[in-house]
Automatic annotation (TrEMBL):
Protein name from the UniProt record: Uncharacterized protein
Annotated Low complexity bias: 1-11
Superkingdom of this protein's organism: Eukaryota
Region described as Disordered: 1-23
């Protein structure tokens, strides 16, 4: 049996060979077929189907557009098991990262191309609050569960073992979902670790960098989510500042915009500016300006610097000072040949020069270079350059500089140009004002070229042609000339005092805050101060009384006291009462006028009405002084003053 069995076994027929299937190329002609193929268990088939669907989603072929739209709306609410989005989303947990990345790519493509159709699915609007009758009660939408698409995409995006392709596609979908979607941003802040975004900024992939910048920006701009971004442990400007040197323009631009946006947050977020300075933010901005090949980016750098200089002039100027930024800015304007960029640099300089917190930096070690460059641009630049350089010059000129007659004459002609608009004439007038305040020699030159009379004419003419803002600057210029000892004697005359008096009387329909009247009274006060000893050669008080100015002042204060408290200007009362006090105290002649009694009555009224202005103590002193003097003299006027003053002391217990 044994040998026979062995022989029979040797002769048994062999088993048929198994078929050797080779990979075949899968082609999808219609989106419907690709959606069906998503149900395959093989990752390669899933990937090919998703690849095809992405192609269909990006296509502009009308037939394909209609097919994709129909598949998105495959169910009653667009979320049935046959819908494209649901079919693709079912593969998001695939063990193959390429498949998961393709899912996110498809959803992002659908959102970009078919936003209206896919929005109800991806954004997942929650039901409105309903009252007992089942009707909308008008309250805000109630969000019961977090958005699964955003949450899962963030998990993949932030995972340590996430490949570059998956990071890119997940971040692309997140950037799209968070745009103008506060609920989704809130979900991410509440359920995800937003801190991970700052590590993703250091990715080597430019698309991940770009999408991450968008995510950070979108979340920070969404309602109250900004605190969830700026308070994370890894918040830093460094990775964003580093991206300004990216090889990709989009990344560069967005990095500057995001940094600028954070720095423009309200002053309550001052720590951001401290972080920016500590991380050499200003220095890195200035380094970008040194790369002339990136001129297309310089305008954004200037826009950011101007914005932070406006919000934080002191810290910004100190940051520039630490890196010799003012000199670098002058070098830049000397070497660049783009007029727009030169104007940007001028705007930054002007912004720093205008603010008292930063003027000293512009007028510091680089002042001479700034002055010389501004003069060149004043004489040779475009209209915009001339206007801004003119204004900067007003701040950098000082008494140690030789009088630049040519530059001053041009500025004077600009301020008086009859063909220029009032706005264009106001800027050089502001420059003259700054130059007068900073340099007595410049003020003397302005008087020597006989421009003062023409300026007074603008204030005194009837009807007044110059607008209120221009007139106010002229009054400030005239007051500055009075305050400068080198020009005081030359300009002080009845015409100048009369100009200030007219300002106190003046009425502008749009001057709701009585600004011109206040400036006129300040000019009068400066004139009275200038007339005190040792300036014996000047008698502005006699001019004031000859023009019956005290009566006008009393009437203006009465007008303010009779106004509604909400419309009353205590500043007008203060400055004019101060002038009246000076008049009553300085000369015996003042106390012989009927205005004295009016003023005393007025002051009594101010105290009884509890108009506690800044000058109330001076008013009390003046009243008691007049009372003591009146009791020692004869005459009806002095008796009346004494009676009113005594009544005030007894009835209201006015004490020093």
């Amino acid at each position: 049996m044994g040998p026979k069995s062995a022989a029979n076994k040797a002769k048994s027929p062999p088993e048929p060979p198994k078929p050797d299937f080779k990979p075949v190329e899968i082609r999808f002609i219609q989106p419907d077929t690709a959606v069906i193929a998503l149900e395959s268990a093989e990752p390669i088939v899933q990937y090919e189907a998703l690849y095809a669907l992405n192609y269909f989603a990006e296509s502009y072929d009308q037939e394909l557009v209609e097919s994709v739209t129909r598949l998105i709306n495959g169910g009653e609410a667009g979320v049935s098991s046959g819908g494209m989005v649901e079919a693709a989303w079912s593969l998001v947990e695939s063990t193959c990262q390429e498949v998961t990345a393709s899912v996110y790519r498809l959803l992002a493509n659908l959102f970009d191309r078919y936003g209206e159709a896919v929005r109800p699915i991806l954004i997942r609007p929650r039901p409105l609050d309903l009252d007992d009758s089942g009707q909308d009660d008008g309250e805000d939408i109630t969000y019961d569960v977090p958005n699964p698409f955003a949450i899962r995409a963030f998990d993949h995006y932030a995972a340590e073992n996430c490949g570059i392709s998956l990071q890119e596609m997940a971040s692309r979908l997140l950037a799209r979902l968070t745009r103008d979607q506060h609920p989704i941003c809130n979900d991410l802040c509440q359920f995800c670790d937003v801190n991970k975004c700052f590590s993703r900024l250091r990715s080597t992939d430019p698309d991940v960098q770009l999408n991450t910048l968008k995510i950070i920006s979108n979340i920070a701009k969404s309602g109250e989510c900004v605190n969830s971004v700026v308070n994370v442990p890894d918040f830093s400007f460094v990775p964003m500042l580093d991206l300004m040197r990216s090889d990709y323009t989009q990344v560069q631009y967005l990095a500057v915009d995001v940094v600028s946006w954070f720095l423009a947050l309200p002053s309550t977020e001052m720590t951001l500016h401290v972080i920016f300075r500590a991380e050499d933010g200003v220095k890195k901005f200035m380094e970008i300006l040194e790369i002339f090949e990136w001129q297309d980016m310089h305008s954004k750098i200037f826009a950011a610097l101007i914005k932070i200089a406006k919000l934080y002039p002191g810290p910004t100027s100190r940051g520039l000072q630490q890196v010799n930024g003012i000199e670098a800015l002058v070098d830049y304007m000397e070497n660049i040949d783009d007029d727009n960029l030169i104007e940007n640099g001028l705007e930054l300089l002007l912004r720093l020069a205008e603010d008292p917190c930063s003027t000293n930096v512009v007028c510091g070690e680089a002042r001479t270079r700034v002055r010389d460059r501004m003069r060149t641009l004043l004489m040779e630049g475009t209209k915009e350059m001339v206007d801004m350089s003119c204004r900067v010059l007003g701040y950098v000129w000082n008494d140690g500089d030789p009088v630049d007659a040519e530059a001053l004459d041009k500025i004077v002609s600009m301020a008086s140009d009859p063909e220029g608009s009032w706005e264009s004439r106001a800027a050089p007038l502001c420059t003259l004002l700054s130059a007068i305040r900073n340099s007595p020699s410049f003020a003397a030159h302005l008087v020597d070229i006989n421009q003062i009379d023409s300026y007074k004419r603008y204030v005194n003419e009837t009807p007044r042609v110059a607008p209120l803002e221009y007139t106010k600057i002229i009054v400030l210029v005239l007051t500055a000339l009075v305050l400068q000892e080198s020009t005081r004697k030359k300009v002080m005359n009845s015409d100048l005092i009369g100009t200030f008096v007219r300002c106190c009387q003046a009425f502008f329909p749009k001057d709701e805050n009585n600004e011109l009247a206040i400036l006129g009274a300040e000019g009068l006060r400066a004139s009275l101060e200038a007339g005190r000893p040792p300036h014996h050669w000047l008698l502005p008080l006699r001019i004031v009384f000859r023009l019956n100015c005290p009566t006008f002042l009393v009437h203006r204060i009465y007008a303010q006291l009779t106004k509604d408290p909400f419309n009353r200007s205590l500043e007008v009362v203060d400055v004019m009462a101060n002038v009246i006090i000076m008049l009553l105290q300085d000369t015996a002649e003042a106390r012989m006028l009927s205005t004295t009694l009016d003023a005393v009555t007025l002051f009594v009224g101010m105290i009884t009405l509890k108009m506690w202005t800044e000058n109330i103590r001076a008013i009390k002193i003046c009243l008691i002084k007049l009372m003591s003097e009146g009791l020692q003299k004869d005459g009806k006027l002095h008796v009346a003053i004494s009676v009113v003053s005594c009544f005030l002391v007894v009835q209201y217990r006015v004490v020093l």
